[in-house]
Specification:
The complex is a heterodimer of chains A (375) and B (168). By secondary structure, chain A is an alpha/beta fold. In chain A, α1 (13-24) runs parallel beside α2 (61-73) and α3 (135-144) runs parallel beside α4 (160-171). In chain A, the strands form 5 sheets. In chain A, strands 1, 2, 3, 4, 5, 6 and 19 form a 7-stranded mixed beta sheet that branches. A 5-stranded parallel beta sheet of chain A has the order 8-15-9-10-11. In chain A, strands 12-13-14 form a 3-stranded antiparallel beta sheet, with no helix packed on it. Chain A is built from 9 helices and 19 strands. The model of chain A is unreliable at 364-375 (pLDDT under 50). Helix content of chain A is 29%, strand content 25%. Chain A is globular and about 65 Å long. Helices cover 12% and strands 26% of the residues of chain B. The radius of gyration of chain B is 15 Å and the shape is globular. The chains are: A alpha/beta (375), B alpha+beta (168). Chain A binds chain B through residues 47-53, 57-60, 63, 170-173, 184-186, 189-203, 205, 302, 340-347, and chain B through 2-8, 32-41, 44-45, 56-58, 77-82, 102-104, 116-121, 138-140, 156-157, 159, 164-165, 167.
Chain lengths: 375, 168
């Protein structure tokens, strides 16, 4: 059986940062990632990141992969195994891994779960028609494979992902017929809205999609205004002509391995769904299991990278690779940056979610709030 | 309105417009960043100290226009594509606006393009007078177009015939 000091699951921004940090402190690190190439969602993020210089602000996501891989690649004590899907964790800490039709076992001394998130979706008549995509799929098609998802796209959701992907669709030469958002306010950064608006993309706040119309594939979308009770106003129904509909309605943490590991899980809607309890060192309440990135609560990639750093540092420290003093200094440094990032008005939701998570009961895997219809 | 469609109102613009006294003297930066988001590359990019160091990374940029030389290095650095340089020193009728441009094809000097306002409405045509696209700008070109001086508050984008953005 394969053994390692630290195994990281997921080679996205959090997992790669965890591996970079842990290997810097001379821990032996193996990263397993199910995709063919490392990077996670960074492989399609052609936009510049926000944040501060220390968090690579101003650098495009696609270029941050190279920076992190270079950092990891120069060390002999770290390696990345692509195409390897960690599918199980047993009570004795053994992992089951599927790769190229084979299954094998591995046992780490420390485990860092940076498994990312899955897209949420919406159900409406016609939502199963070809031409209805998640925003992640649209980004993958366009920015990784160079394939346009359609010629005339309706975007659903005006959070950062919806606004950014709408802009990237325009860059790919696709017409965006509009952005539909049920809330009365844009959820994403206003600058992202401004930059698509000045390219003539209409943003329909307080609107929802009622139906995708079409026989073999999407031919149009029926949208309507929503009233104060969030119910669609029938008299405002209208059809937009489009051949694709892109859903950008949020993410939920991918936490299967955390459930399997027995982590205390809580439903925190502000963090996107079920998330594991964690201490400030990103340790879960299962001994030797750390969490980081979207899998620990949905946030921007800059936060994921810092959580990854903290998890990698903590795991290395617990193995005796980092002195208490060095650990204290470094943890404080990253922790301060992360707190700064979350301290503004746009970090309010995450702060509320983290505070709820802190107060949530442990070892009970109960619902905290809002979980009535979701479990 | 910013909160509903990202279009700033004249009152929003009022807050970021450089002081009248120096607007006729030289090109000056308009930092159209109205929301407290965690971001500070504009300060890092500014060689003249006009974009003041952030106390809190969530602060709205604090611009000292007296120090701004209008160099435009901040334009391509802004992840939100929210920085413009407006030059009103050419005379009473014409002005130059420098803006970030990330579409293909990149326009060329001398080309006539459609001017777009903040809502994407066509507002006449203008000549491209300068295109900067060095490696350090990392694939965000900075395009300078000539516009009517009366529209310095409004023109913030361009469309090229047959380009990704085609104002037809």
């Amino acid at each position: 059986m394969l053994t390692a000091e630290i195994i990281v699951v997921g080679a996205g921004p959090a997992g790669l940062s965890a591996a970079a940090e842990a290997s810097h402190w001379n821990a032996g690190v193996t990263v397993f990632d199910r995709d063919a190439t490392p990077g996670g969602q960074l492989v399609k993020q052609t936009h510049r990141f926000f944040g501060s210089r220390a968090q690579r602000a101003g650098t495009r996501g696609i270029d941050i992969i190279r920076i992190l891989l270079d950092e990891i690649g120069e060390r002999e004590n770290a390696r990345i195994v692509s195409g390897a899907d960690v599918v199980s964790r047993y009570d004795d800490g053994v992992l089951g891994i599927a790769k190229a039709g084979h299954w094998f076992k591995a046992k780490p001394e420390r485990l860092i779960l940076a498994t990312g998130a899955a897209e949420k979706t919406l159900a409406f008549p016609g939502s199963d028609l070809p031409g209805v995509y998640g925003a992640g799929a649209v980004q993958t098609l366009m920015n990784v494979h160079g394939v346009r998802p359609g010629q005339h796209v309706l975007m659903v959701g005006a959070g950062n992902i919806g606004l950014i992907v709408a802009y990237q669709l325009i860059q790919a030469g696709v017409e965006v017929v509009g952005v539909v958002e049920a809330s009365e306010r844009i959820g994403g950064y206003w600058v992202h809205a401004s930059k698509i608006r000045r390219l003539k993309i209409p943003i329909f706040t307080r609107h929802t999609i009622l139906q995708a119309r079409g026989k073999e594939s999407v031919e149009g979308a029926i949208i309507a205004e929503v009233g104060g009770d969030w119910a669609p106003i029938e008299s405002t129904r209208r059809e937009l002509s489009c051949d694709a509909i892109c859903l950008a309605v949020g993410l939920s943490p991918l936490v299967d391995l955390m459930w399997q590991s027995g982590c205390s899980m809580s439903w925190i809607s502000e963090l996107g769904g079920y998330v594991p309890a964690r201490d400030p060192s990103m340790g879960s309440d299962v001994d030797g299991v750390y969490v980081a990135g979207d899998a620990a609560g949905i946030e921007e990639a800059s936060a994921a990278m810092m959580e990854g750093r903290i998890a990698g540092l903590s795991a290395a420290h617990s193995l005796g690779k980092v002195s208490d003093e060095q650990f204290g200094l470094r943890a404080e440094e990253i922790g301060r940056e992360l707190a700064n990032l979350r301290s503004g008005p746009t970090g309010e939701v995450v702060r509320r979610g983290l505070s709820k998570l802190e107060r949530a009961p442990r070892n009970s895997q109960v619902l905290v709030e809002g979980g009535d219809s979701r479990c | 309105m910013l909160t509903s469609d990202g279009v700033p109102t004249p009152r929003d613009i009022e807050k970021i417009r450089p002081p009248d006294e120096i607007r006729r003297e030289r090109p000056l930066v308009w930092v159209e960043c109205f929301q407290e988001i965690p971001c500070d590359p504009c300060h890092q990019a500014c060689p003249s100290g006009a974009i003041v160091e952030f106390e809190d990374i969530n602060d709205i940029p604090n611009v000292m226009h007296e120090l701004c030389t209008g160099c435009g290095l901040c334009i391509a650095s802004c992840p939100g594509l929210a920085i413009f340089v407006v030059d009103e020193s050419e005379g009473p009728d014409q002005a130059l606006v420098s803006m970030p441009y990330e579409m293909l094809p990149v326009p060329v000097t001398g080309q006539m393009v459609t001017l777009l306002d903040r809502s994407g409405r066509p507002a006449g045509r203008g000549e491209v007078v300068r295109v900067r696209n060095p490696k350090t700008f990392d694939r965000t070109a900075v395009v300078t177009v000539r516009i009517p001086a009366s529209k310095v508050d409004d023109i913030r984008a361009i469309a090229l015939p047959g380009g990704d953005v085609d104002a037809k």
